[in-house]
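User: For a benchmark we're assembling, each entry needs the component sequences followed by a predicted structure for the full assembly. Here are entry 17's components. Please fill in the structure.
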Amino acid sequence: MGDEAFIGADGAAGVGEAIGVGEAFGADEAFIEVDGVEKVFDVRRRTGFLKRERRRVRAVDSISFRVARGEMVGYIGPNGAGKSTTIKMLTGILTPSGGRLRVAGIDPSRERTRLAHRIGVVFGQRTTLWWDLPLIDSYRLMHRMYRIPDARYRENLDRLVELLGLEDLLEVPVRQLSLGQRMRGDVAAALLHDPEVLYLDEPTIGLDVMSKARVRAFLRELNAERGTTVLLTTHDLQDIEQLCSRVMVIDHGRLVYDGALAGLHEVGESERMLVVDLERELPPIEAPPARVVKVEGPRQWLAFPASESAAALVARVAADHPLVDLSVREPDIEAVIARVLNSPAEPPEAPREDVGRVIS
Amino acid sequence: MAERGAVVEGLRAYRLIAGMWVRSSMTYRTSFAVTVVGNLLLTGLDFVGILLMFSQVDRLGGWSLPEVAFLYGLSVTAFGFADLVLGSMDALGARMRDGSFDVLLVRPVPVLAQVGADRFALRRLGRITQGLAVLGWALSAVDVEWTAAKVLLVPVMVLSGAVIFGAVFVAGAAFQIVAQDAAEVQNAFTYGGTTLLQYPPTVFGNDLVRGVTFTLPLAFVNWVPAAHVLGRPYPVALPGWTAYASPLVAAVCCGAAGLVWRSGLRAYRSTGS
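Assistant: Structure for entry 17:
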């Protein structure tokens, strides 16, 4: 209960919390509290006949953050960085090796079943639905299992079915659903009991463009209208760009960035691009700190730090040059994150698209 | 207090999940009837094997056909009930491998109930029906002077036996959590166990008989109490009252299985998949 006094938050936790706020008050301020949480696995590996090597792996290495009620946070990082392990600890599936962790004031690993009533979880790669049964059977079972009051259940079900377009799928066995349909079915299942927080582990993995858009639109609405706290891990940075005001980047079990998406650009020293069309071919424009990276006839590309104002630069360029047209291009976020992670040596099991599209 | 709450919650969840599977299997009544009959015939093949043996010999390890049928009926019926309630637990290894075990941990009901009730199938009644039929015939055919105690011992054997087999299922499932994939090991003890008990202990080696008496006490499903009912010597030297010890053995097995299950679950939660 209130046995441990909260000793000054260290700088790593970003969201403004009042010092000395007790848990009773803190519950609303910081809905999810993670303080120096770590998870160490013992990995046994065969090194020869009957010979085994034991290795300690720090999947999560002293992570601290807070998430306020109603926030929508993206949690990103390369494969094996510790994203899923964090989610598993937050849901009580795994017990942390150290540190302190509270969700809605509950210690997940100690009171897993009590917490289960207040959280919703969607695993992108596996379903929480009963595979061989029609979708509606899973929902009926959730209704009884979570002890959702009848009226509430019916209301939630109707709303979710409408918003996620599940009308025609309710009688279809889950195994016959397409990936996108199943994902929508899973999202609905996770929300029937009105959870206060929704964890999504790669909710858009493998979905086509339409399905992605549908899931994203739904999540935005859920967060805006119901104030549901959302924490999502993803490889798809568009998820983050379109949904999350805050992003946490994890690498090798450590939090390397926690803040607004915009701030990531500064940390990543990313550059924006000003593309100008001049009246005629001219020598490269000189307007430091911007520098010309490409000239193609009357069109020139100027790279400038993302933190600089584009307006000032445009004004300067326009003053000395005959401008016909211009556009500003935002940096490619994947490239930015690749730079934040500063990892030319990706873990070998991550030959994914993470680093693929660095500036074309 | 919390323990009792968990048991009540678990039973409720079990009922909910099992009920759903029953309703869904009932949507295709014909198919359901066919599978029950199929299950009955398939599991009955074991007894056909015993009958074939007795077409060549008069006694098996010194036991007559009705006596062996008595053992068979007890073993199959007891196992049948355990299989009905917890038979799906051997699928746990697959759940460990594909990661769907995590899903069970985020639901607000005990994991054991979810695993046990998963794919609850009434077709397993086929095995019980078949076991009861053989048991009924054996009871009418064996040459026993029935006393009240001996009559009472028959249902007690079936129930205790079911609990003992159930405990083996649970312990096996816990082992699967640790070993990731060990359905075959579990099957060796469950299906292997019930087959073993269909034959008189006298046909097996002493070490094996001692093992299933003292280590994994399957002998208390039927061998020991049935020997008492039939007026035969116990498979190993034991005091006379042990014929009535099956409920006690079952309770101990339950407790042990519970502990093993809990530590299996804890091991999973601290190591992950």
